[in-house]
Structure formats: C-alpha cells, structure tokens
Amino acid sequence: MDVTLPPPLMISQGFLPTDSLLESLIQISDEVTTIDKIPITQSKNVSIMIRRIKLLSSLFEEIQESNTQLPPSSILCLTELYSVIRRVKSLIQACQQGSCLWNLVRAESISNQFYVLVKEMSRALDILPLSLLKIAADTREQVELLHKQVKRVDLLLDSKEIQRREELLQVMMASTKSKSKAVIDFEKLKVIMSRMGLKTPLDYEEEISKLEEEAEKQAGTGGLIVVSNINNLISLVSLSKSIVFSKEDHKTSQEGGSSREHRYSFSQSMVINIPDEYRCPISLDLMLDPVIVASGHTYDRVSIAQWINSGHHTCPKSGKRLIHMALIPNYALKSLIHQFCEENNLPVTDPATSSTSLEKSSSTKRKLPEKAIDHISATKAAMDAVKMTAEFLVGKLAMGSVDIQRQAAYELRLLAKTGMENRRLISEAGAIPFLVTLLSSHDPRIQEHAVTALLNLSIFENNKVLIVAAGAIDSIVDVLGSGKTMEARENAAAAIFSLSLIDDYKVVIGSRPKAIPNLVGLLKDGTTSGKRDAATALINLAVYSVNKVNVVVSGAVPLLIDLLMDDKAGITDDALAVLSLLLGCSEGREEIRKSKVLVPILIDLLRFGSRKGKENSITLLLGLCKDGDDEVARRLLMNPRSIPSLQSLAADGSMKAQRKADALLRLLNRCCSQSRNPFE
Predict the structure, then answer these.
(1) Which tens digits make up the pLDDT trace of 45-87?
(2) Which residues are CB-contacts of 183 (< 8 A; sequence separation ≥ 6)?
(3) Alpha helices by DSSP H, 253-317
(4) SS3 content of the chain, % helix, strand, coil (to 5)
(5) Residue 635, φ and ψ in degrees, nearest 5
(6) Whole-prediction pTM
(7) CB 672 within 8 A of CB 678
C-alpha cells in the first residue's frame, strides 16, 4: 500500500489567518488524537504519532488562549505542522481502512512514510521560536523534549510485524509455486490470519473485498506485478477461508454429519488432487461452470459474477480493464473437468441441478450460478434503469408543466436519497442546473423538493463542486431566508452545512451578505431540527475569522445563550461550540461578556454537561477570565458551585478539560491572592 497523502501546503500561496490556522490545527489534532481504533498493522507507529500530536495539541491551545500576536517564523512552523498532521491523519485512515494483509506485506514502505512525516515535523519545530511564545513552562519543556526526540528518531519497524510478514510470504510462495496445495500448512495459515484479525467468515469476506479494491486501484497505475501479488493474496485468503471453516463445520457437526463430512472430504480432495488449471483463480475451488471474460482468462461463473457485481470492471488476474462484461462458456475446459472428476471419483455437481444442496448448505456462501448471473443482470439493469429514469425526469424538469415539474422534482428527491451511485447518475443526467433553477419557483412544493434533492445530491463529494458551479449558493441562501415552507428552509440550512464541508466553500458561503443572517434567523424561528441544522452550519462557517464577526453582528450570541437554557431545543453542545468559536474574535468576546446569565449556566454545565459540553464550557470561562475580565472571575468565586465543579473536572475530566480547569483554578487563585483572600 503506497498511500496517496494530501500534498503539503504550499507556503508561497499565503498563510491562513492566525485564528483560522490555530482553529484548524486544534480541530485536526483532535481528530487524530481521538482515534479509538488503532489499526492492527503499524500500531506502534500510529500510537507514538498520536502521543506526539496530543502534546502538540496542548501547545496549539495555549497559543490560541494567549491571544497574542505571533512572530512570522511561528506562523510558518504552524502552517507546516498543519500540513504534517493532515497527512498523518490520511495515513492512519489508510492503515485503518485498507487491507491488513497488504499493509503487512508493505510494512517497510508504510513505516517509511511515518518516518518521513516525523522528520518533516522535526524540521517544522526547528523554526518554532518557543522563547517568544507566551506558554506555560511545562508546555515549553515538553515541546523541547519532543523536538529532541523527533530529531534523533530512526525508522521504526515492528519486529513482530516483520516476522508475521515473513511467515505470510512463505505460505504465499508455497501456494503459488506448488502444483499441490497439500504442502500448505493450513493450521499455520489460520494462526497468521487470526493474528491479523481474520477470525470469522465475515472478516475474511471484508479482507477479500479490501484486497480487490486495492488490486483495482493498483491496476489503474500499471503495477501488474503488484496486482499479481495482491491476486495471490486474494486466492490465499479465499482458500484459507474455504478450508478453515469447512474443517470447523466438520468438527462441530452433530446432525447431518455425513453430508458435511462428504463436503469436507470433497474440499480436501480438491486441495490435494485438483490441478491448478481446473481451479478458479478467484476462489481456488473446482470450476463448476468455467467462463471466459474479455481478457481471455477463465473463471468460475459464480466467482467472476460476484466480482463484476461488486463494481469491478477489471480482470482479477491481469488487472486489465474489461472492454465488455459478457461471460462466454468454456465448453472445452468444462468437458475436461467433468472427465477429471469421473476418473478420480469426485462428485460432479451440475450447476443446473445443484439448487437443493447449495441452498441447504450452511457451510458455504455460494449461490446458484444462474441466480448469481441473474443478480448481476438485475443490478446492471437497475443501474441502467436509474440512468434512464434520471434522464427522463430531467427532461420533465426542463419541459414539463408545473404539475409535471413538481412530480419530477419529488421523484428525483427520492431517487437521490438512496445511494452514492444514484447520486452520481442523477448528476450525470444533468439534473443539478435544472434543480437550481427550480429553487426560485413560486410553487412551495417544487421549491421544497428541489432544495431537498440538491441536499441529497451534495452528499456525493463530486456533486458539491457541480452544485456550487451551477450558481446554487445564492439561491439556497434565499430559500434559507424566505423559503415557502419551513422544511425547505431547514433543508437549505442542511445543504449549506454539507457544502461548507469543503474548506474553500466556507469562505464563499460566508461572503454572501444574507447567508449568516439567514442561518441566525432559522436559529431563532426554526423547529428543533431546523435550529440544529442552522447551528451545525454556523459551526462550520465560524472557523474563519471574518465569518465569526458576521455571526456576532447578526445577533447570534443572545440566541445561542438562550438555547443553552432551552431543553426542548436539544442543541446545547452545538450552541456551546459556536460560542467557543466566537470567543476567538474581540467582537464575540465583548458580546458574550454582556450576558449576566451565562456564567451560572456554564458552571452547571461543568457538572452536568456532556464531555464536549464540559470542554466548551471551561473554554468559555477560561477565555473570559484570561481576557482580563475581573468581573467574570469575581462571579465565579462568588458562586459556591464553581470551585468544586472545577476541581472535579481537573481530577476526572478529559485531558483537554483537565488542563483548562487547572489553568482556571490557578488564575482564580491569583485573583484571590491579589485581593488578600487566598484560595486553595
């Protein structure tokens, strides 16, 4: 697995604003450090990298809380660290989501990618002017220690992983070189697979699927040797699955034992006696119905049908793209296989008559060949039907009457709700420009269906670009503010949230004069669902400083504070998140400071809020107190619940909450000392 990482940020293109840069650093660091499922492969590299980024996250938060001007060299360092952490996240995700066996084979290559990122982290820290930053002494010491560690770090290869890889490669060589599979130690193979997390039939199927995806990806880059190795792995996993679980079925069978025993002896005979040319390259089983694909290679009809049905359009063996999906019967080979079975007293199962035994078998997942092909035909027919339906409905949007447009928009809304493939086909049919035009329809239902269809289509990443390119943002903003139904307004807010997941569009949407005011309006007037949609959209937009000011000017702060006390709204955490972001601009701090009810609410949330709610509550309190507001500190000291709540959070909260609670307690202690009323 050579992971394609996001490109490094190009410094020459200009820096992000300091506030936005720190917000982005804290957010992406939090995404990395909260990863709870460490991948089986590269676990050491991943764990160590997470610990390093967790330490850097504390540095970023302290720099943000200091609210001071940063020297240029520190901005350069932070920009490069953001690039590094972004690529670390992508690399960890690739290790999590990819094939564990292929990751194991590529252990050295992946470890080297981690090593390169550590060295880039080291070079970024070389230019960090720690002495010029207003941070705590212990944080400075930890960052200096981290800097020393990453400067002298070596390539980390897990010896256990290397040993497992060697064992796996030995078995692979035995399976590919030997004509007889009897030489394969399946007990050893089972142990290897178990150590890599493959313990159930479902685990094996998921691993095969991931390997197939990797093979298809590599085939597109011309790596035929790599594809061949991956296909060998697929064959090995398939063979291991069929043998391991047929043996287990044999051992655990109490009733119907003779039929299962017969199946196992048949599998065992296949392993020992069947020539490779009679085996399907995918399943390694005896081919019951051999067929030839466009590349000229032969497979069992069931196996290649499942391969094509899962969305692959390449030959599993050669990696070449299939110019057509026709499966041509290989009658000559089928005759030889039948003759071989008769000579060796192996049972010959005719695909046309095997329905009963296959359907009753609990130890195999294979379906009738006819049914598999019917399923493929049905799936392909379904895709063709979606395409034809989308094209038909787009025609009705363009040329139909109001009633026909209403029905067509509704049908597209439903069609776009179910599956990425549908969303892709609808956009390819040209629906997006017509749906954007219908956003200004005077018919309430047409407008509602159009904006909801666009929302559903935007879930497919490529469609976000097409929707914005079609000029949809202004129209969606208009529906958000003055939509003819509340559902249309709420779905417009959800669409803005979906589009703003792309960073560039956060700025584009925020620059529209009515976008943020209309979201704030929905925050005030919407239903519970609408308020939540508006709040989540504001969270996305408020990452950028200019958008923060617009949110404050639009009157969001009093509304958000009111929502903290509104149990029916149920968006306390979202409201706190927006307020925490608004604390990052002077206008936001000034507006938040005006509230007389916020501090008691935050103190209660320190005790009874969610984990995220407690973190945002302590962030708000610390930010208000650090800004030199003695009034907030006095109100905290006068409230009998504040100190016990802070002490409890400092002892039992999340790492982020503990650090901020400690900082706030120290600040309050200094405040007491200055007033000659020491506080412990």
Answers:
(1) 999 999 999 999 988 888 888 877 787 778 888 888 988 999 9
(2) 174
(3) 257-273, 301-309
(4) 70, 0, 25
(5) -65, -35
(6) 0.50
(7) yes
